[in-house]
Amino acid sequence: MIDFDYVKARDVSDAVSRIAQNPAAKFIAGGTNLIDLMKENVARPTRLIDITGLPLTEIEETDAGGLLIGALVPNSDLAYDARITKRYPLLSSAILAGASAQLRNMASTGGNLLQRTRCLYFYDTTTPCNKREPGSGCSAIDGFNRMNAILGWSEACIAVHPSDMCVALAVLEATVHVERPERAIVRFPSPIFTGFPGTRRTSTPTSPATRSSPRSSCRPRGSRATTAI
Asked: Residue 219's pLDDT band (boundaries 50, 70, 90)?
């Protein structure tokens, strides 16, 4: 493990401001992915910004007939919510298909959305990986690539997104709302937000959130700020 500072965000604006001031910092909520990355030296944040106290734990109805899901709603609460199981059973089933009950109790909706790939080479810092170091190469393409992409991969990467929940969100045509330091809200269709293998955003999203239309749902509001590939 590395040395790092720890602070607790007062509100969403404070969290966004802190992450903007320190690109080497990371938000932490459930920590079910970030702690593993820190143990393996894949992630080396200089500061952890605790967002667990933010008011982002609600699932709200929208005027359009969808649902707004706070970034800090635990995966278990989301999967078993009566509105989700009745109106979006695909989302509930997808969440329950992943991890264990203990992890689902800890993992947040926003953290699930932004978790990093589970590719073995991504976690092995002794091997080249374009997700860790863009331009270094992809060891999985010519290596042990079981559980990686068969379709849709690029020459830069064949790792798949690790979240079962995100697949359901893409099918349901959910959108992601990203709050930036200037308080502007940017909206992304969920497949564009998560990206394709080997692609990289040109900017770091802050406070991601999915928002639902009448046919879809989910808005993790004010979650962790990471650059995803």
From this structure: very low
CA neighbor of 187 nearest in space, from 218, 214, 165, 164: 218
How high is the pLDDT of residue 201?
45
Domain spans of the chain, in order of start: 5-117+161-211, 118-160
> 98, 68 in Cβ contact below 8 A?
no
The distance from CA 31 to its chain's CA centroid, rounded to whole angstroms, is 11
State the Cα–Cα distance between residues 207 and 163, nearest whole angstrom.
Answer: 18
Q: How many CB atoms lie within 10 A of CB 120?
A: 18
pLDDT at 211 over 60: no
Fold of domain 5-117+161-211: 3.30.465
What pTM, to 2 d.p., does this model score?
A: 0.81
pLDDT exceeds cutoff 70 at 184:
no
